[in-house]
Write a structure and sequence with these properties.
The chain contains 12 helices and 8 strands. It is of the alpha/beta class. The strands form 2 sheets. Strands 1, 2, 3, 7 and 8 form a 5-stranded parallel β-sheet that branches. A 3-stranded parallel β-sheet has the order 4-5-6, with no helix packed on it.
Length: about 280
């Protein structure tokens, strides 16, 4: 099994440059504000171990003067509000990540999904004093569905960030999902902006997240590998003028030297580091 995985990964790695070239073929380059390509670093707080990384992340991002976005579970915020309040105090963004992070989110009815989202919203508002206007589906991927946009519309949300770039026809630009196919823009559309998350620049198909990089054996866990792949992502963003929207699990990257070194790449005059919510006014 390990041999098959290594072989599959090797094929994907070899084919990735061609696949990205085909994906962006003929796609118009978006003109960004100030002529700078936007980058968002976001984090998902699925476990208590993730919230324990908050002080280290705030220190790291503070040293660069970079903002970040944080997708938070309502139940974890409720249990330890002081930890998450530090994010708000540092002017970082809080994203709604449902109240209880259901593992079967795609199997819930629209009303059940809406209740999960609304409960998290109320928790964040009452405990942290801020109201999120963005949402991320738990585990997104196959757990994300069109009725999420319906629920978000009804709750007055501005955006979702719950799709994998290379599964969409967004070409790296935030879009209003078509009601006929939420993985592409088109009318009639949902009035909720979708901010797709970057796919792995070396393997094309999977999301470029910390589970893929550090937990998936043989992917990018060797010293120095993560920074090189992050650099590939930056190069793709600059070449194709795409919104480089990334997400990681705090417990994987806090204290990781490769992750810290990757932030140096964002000190580029052609890039600007923004929160997810900062993108919405441009669309």
């Amino acid at each position: 099994m390990a041999l098959v995985k290594d072989l599959t990964r090797g094929i994907a790695s070899a084919a990735s440059p061609l696949l990205f070239a085909l994906y962006f073929k003929g796609a118009p380059k978006h003109s960004w504000k100030e002529g700078k390509v936007p980058v968002t670093i976001s984090f998902d707080y699925d476990f208590k171990e993730d919230e324990q990384a908050i002080p280290a992340l705030l220190e790291l991002f503070g040293s660069y003067g970079f903002p970040a976005s944080h997708a938070c579970r309502g139940d974890l915020v409720q249990k330890n509000p002081s930890a998450y309040a530090k994010l708000v105090d540092a002017n970082h963004e809080i994203i709604n990540h449902t109240q209880n992070h259901p593992e079967n989110f795609n199997e819930l009815s629209k009303e059940e999904k809406k209740r999960e989202i609304a409960a998290c919203h109320d928790t964040i508002k009452s405990t942290l004093g801020v109201e999120p206007n963005g949402f991320r589906t738990p585990h997104f991927g196959k757990l994300h569905s069109p009725d999420v946009y319906e629920a978000l519309e009804e709750l007055g949300y501005l955006y979702s960030s719950s799709t994998n770039l290379t599964r969409t026809k967004s070409f790296g630009v935030p879009y209003y999902p078509s009601k006929k196919d939420f993985l592409r823009p088109g009318e009639p559309s949902y009035k909720v902006l979708e901010l797709s998350v970057m796919s792995c620049p070396e393997h094309y198909f999977p999301v470029f997240d910390s589970w893929h990089c550090f937990e998936n054996p043989g992917a990018h866990s060797k010293p120095g590998r993560f920074r090189k792949v992050f650099e590939l992502a930056v190069q793709l963003a600059l070449k194709h003028s795409l919104y480089l929207n990334t997400y990681f699990d705090p417990r994987h990257v806090a204290g990781n030297k490769d992750f810290a070194a990757s932030l140096d790449l964002l000190r580029n005059s052609r890039l600007r580091v923004v929160r997810s919510c900062d993108i919405c006014p441009e669309f």
